[in-house]
Amino acid sequence: MRRIISNTEYYLGSLLILSVLAIFAYAINSEVVRYVIGLLYLLLVLKFGSDRFRAGKGLPSKCRRNYQGYIEVHVENDCDKKIENLFRIICEVIEIGKNEQKDVLIDSWLISKKNIEKYLGESVEFVPFSFIQRLSNKMHRIMFKAKRGSNIEPYRCIIKTSLVSKEQMIRVQNIITQIDLRRNRIG
Q: Which of 27, 78, 85, 159 has a CA 20 to 30 Å removed from the CA of 120?
């Protein structure tokens, strides 16, 4: 199974390495090494900061292009625990991914593995989390109340946009419509 690394993991991993180097520099008491590490930290922050704006151009809110060539979807906190909002954004990103010939990377806890596989079929491939992403997920469960009540185990999947058929997209659109109709009847 291949290892997929998200932008968050790149950022946190780089900061972790720089922190270890900074501790080492202070331990050996070298001014030059301290300045080099400070400069590397500044460059890293500027690079990731500029990537946030550049990599998200033309995508829905909080979605961005990955260094490995994927489009990442990070919208669960904006979805307000509503699956239809997540599906709308996923459909939009799948269309963009088809146009750009890129696959979609999703780390999700809003919809179960079984359901996403049911709706998108063979175009979905599940990949394991790295240590940094597992740690980040645990921290998010503590920080965000919306994730605390969820019984769904978080997972990472790649949606291969070249394998997503028109019928699957129509099925997902129908599901969104059904959920909206149910909510309107109740509300």
A: 78
| Residue 72 bridge partners (DSSP) | 64, 105
Question: How many residues belong to the chain?
Answer: 187
Per-residue 3-state assignment (H helix, E strand, C coil) for the chain:
CCCCCCHHHHHHHHHHHHHHHHHHHHHHCCHHHHHHHHHHHHHHHHHHHHHHHHHCCCCCCCEEECCCCCEEECCCCCCCCCHHHHHHHHHHHHHHHHHHCCCEEEEECCCCHHHHHHHHHHHEEEECCCHHHHHHHHHHHHHCHHHHCCCCCCEEEEECHHHCCHHHHHHHHHHHHHHHHHHHHHC
CA distance 2 to 79: 29
Q: 124: pLDDT confidence band, cut at 50, 70 and 90?
A: very high
Helix axes 83-100, 166-186, angle to 10 degrees: 160
Residue with the larger pLDDT of the pair 80 and 14:
14
CA neighbours closer than 13 Å in the CB half-sphere of residue 5: 10
Instruction: Read off the pTM.
Output: 0.76
